[in-house]
């Protein structure tokens, strides 16, 4: 199915990523159903979208009437059956393989034969998720970045059984959202998480060597033009999340992704970054 056949999109999950994906998809003119398991989660997702759109309106980047039209294209729901007439489903539920496999089994039962079924997973194998269905050629990774309305790039993940046609349609869909697609093969961490996390881990080792987080960050920002230093970035992402992702990468690629002892010690201390008020920096 080509991108011209995509009219209705269903997004599963109304959390951090799900509501952002719903927003940019509705902004691009698609009809979107946003499904979560409880009304309160769906409502929270809608509130986040409304806030984000009003910011665009306040800044003069969008007309008020346009924001209304975007909202009118969104159907908030707790019904799973909305996937039945979707041309594209984007799954954005928590990062648990069992949960995603279970959802893709259900999608396989309910979706139209030509529908594309995508996962927003940031670390799980698309090949395994696709294998839960009888149509793994229609399963692809569409890995949006956080915050979705702001970040320009989207990583497409080419599972072992993903067809070229599915990948091409996913690419065109991402472009239609005004974003830039990049394609990654289906190994742990794809391209972005793999390259980023080895860099973050090495930065942690330089702090262990006695360099201050500020010196490490300033060096990377002013000498290599990184928009943000690695220590500040780890504090933002969460030290526990960095250690968790490094664990997944170590499982796939071995030793070189072993988390720096400093990061593990910070997790033990509960110094997880911004969310706990202390990480490499104090907040
Ligand atoms: N947060 C990030 O920075 C980020 C970035 C890129 C990718 N991702 C990936 O996106 C996915 C979602 O992450 P998130 O941060 O939005 O999580 P989140 O916890 O904010 O949201 C997940 C939502 O899914 C809902 N949910 C659970 N089971 C469901 C079901 N069966 N049907 C529909 N909804 C269900 C939950 O109630 C919750 O509202 C994960 O795979 C994650 O790895 C996250």
Would you tell me the structural class of the helices and strands? alpha/beta
SS element count, helices: 11
What's the overall average pLDDT, rounded? 97
Question: What order do the helices and strands follow?
Answer: EHEHHEEHEHEEHEHHHHH
Give the biggest sheet.
8 strands, mixed
How are the strands of the largest sheet arranged? Answer: 3-2-1-4-5-6-7-8
CATH class of the largest domain: Alpha Beta
Low-confidence stretches: none
- List the bound ligands: nicotinamide-adenine-dinucleotide
Number of domains: 2
Strand count: 8
Shape, please? globular
Query: Alpha-carbon distance between the termini?
Result: 49 Å
Question: So, CATH architecture of the largest domain?
Answer: 3-Layer(aba) Sandwich
Entry summary:
With 283 residues, this protein is of the alpha/beta class. It is 48% helix and 14% strand.
Key features?
single chain, 283 residues, alpha/beta, Rossmann fold, N-(1-d-carboxylethyl)-l-norvaline Dehydrogenase, domain 2, 2 domains, 11 helices, 14% strand, globular, binds nicotinamide-adenine-dinucleotide
Can you walk through the features of this model?
The protein has helices spanning 16-27, 39-58, 64-72, 97-110, 126-131, 164-176, 192-208, 213-224, 230-237, 239-253, 261-269, and strands spanning 8-12, 31-35, 74-77, 88-91, 116-119, 139-144, 153-158, 180-185. By secondary structure, it is an alpha/beta fold. The protein folds into two domains: 3-185, NAD(P)-binding Rossmann-like Domain (Rossmann fold, 3-Layer(aba) Sandwich); 193-276, N-(1-d-carboxylethyl)-l-norvaline Dehydrogenase, domain 2 (Orthogonal Bundle). An eight-stranded mixed β-sheet has the order 3-2-1-4-5-6-7-8, with helices on both faces. Strand 6 and strand 7 form a beta hairpin. Helix 9 (230-237) crosses helix 10 and helix 10 (239-253) crosses helix 11. The longest helix has 20 residues, at 39-58. The protein starts with 7 loop residues before the first strand and ends in a 14-residue tail after the last helix. The model has no long low-confidence stretch (mean pLDDT 97).
